[in-house]
Amino acid sequence: MPVYNTDSELFSKCVAPFIQNDSDRLELIIVDDGSNSETAAMLDELRYRVPVTVMHERNSGQNGAREIGVNAASGLYVGFLDSDDRVVWDNLNRTLDILEKSSSDIVSFDAQRVSVDGQSLGQPFGFGRNTERKRYISSCAELWLQFFRKSFLLEQGGLFRTGEVCVGEDLATVLPMAIRANSIEHAPFVIYQYVQQPDSVLHKSDGQSRMSILRSFDHILEVLTDTELVTYHDEVEWQAVNHILNYETRAQFRNGLKAMANVRKLWIWVESRFPRWRENPYIDSEKQRQGLPCRLALGKHFIAIAFYQTVIRRISGR
After folding, report:
1. Are 109 and 131 in contact (CB under 8 A)?
2. Alpha-carbon distance 121 to 88, whole Å?
3. Eight-class DSSP state of 308
4. pLDDT score at 190
């Protein structure tokens, strides 16, 4: 768990299960990523009922802090918890039962979006419900939606990291490992509660910072072999289309039409590397599943997207 000046109330709810419950089957490693003195003191003062290690480090970014924790971990599997999110304790223990018997490199699970006060927002989700390899590769994104065999993670070079906030850094780690895992298993439990915060770092990041998504995909294309890129071309291509042309185009237009220059760069990147992306077999079904915003983005209806982002979302409070 990396911590960087996390709100004390959110952090208290995050660590509550580890303070209230005993377990000798897991360890909690908290990496203070250069927080202020108040946060550092709070981390040292808490008392847990599970084995815990608190490490105070210089700021190295989220994945830098995570990697410090991975190297310190003694378990066979490692998982990741953001310090403002939460776990469902009973389901976590059910998954530990699976991990104790598993030989898989990756064991995924489900998550639930919740409000700050813990109210469920929508249906549970998880890209591991269908562990058929190509479907998994086409949808995997979040680092915290699975456990990784520690030895496998380290063999793959550890976590992708840049030392600063980078959009897509989870995906840049997960996607190559999903391609190379000996097997992927799914635990059918909601373990993770993803707390929705409009003022989170990524939600507040400016348009130029969000262009770092291209760095993440440059890394993916650099580390995958020619054989891997051929074998999983459609899946890697769809991930680029979905994250760059769909999600990031829409995110850029939160700043209105002044984002047009950045949007053009995103499209140039994809079309130079995946010139036939419109023929991708995932597009039609994903347009249907994701609905109008996805269709507008992939159809290059930029004015409509800007209107949706700056007016409709503001009125609805979303």
Report:
1. no
2. 15
3. I
4. 96
Query: Do the beta carbons of residue 114 and residue 196 sit within 8 Å?
Result: yes
> 112, 32 in Cβ contact below 8 A?
no
Report helix, strand or coil for 146.
strand
CA-based torsion, 90, 96, 97, 98: positive or negative: positive
DSSP bridge partners of 57: 33
> Taking the CA of residue 313 as centre, how many other CA atoms within 13 Å lie in the half-sphere pointing to its CB?
16
H helices then E strands: how many in the chain? 18, 8
30 neighbors 53 (Cβ within 8 angstroms) = yes
Q: Answer yes or no: are the C-beta atoms of 191 and 91 closer than 8 Å.
A: yes
pTM: 0.91
Residue with tokens 């829409």: 250
**Strand 146-149 with 106-114, pairing:** antiparallel
Residue found by looking up tokens 């847990």 in the block? 48
Q: How far apart are CA 218 and CA 216, in angstroms?
A: 5
Per residue in 222-258, pLDDT (tens digit) is 999 999 999 999 999 999 999 999 999 999 998 888 8
> Strands 146-149 and 77-78: what pairing?
antiparallel
- 3 state DSSP class of 148: strand
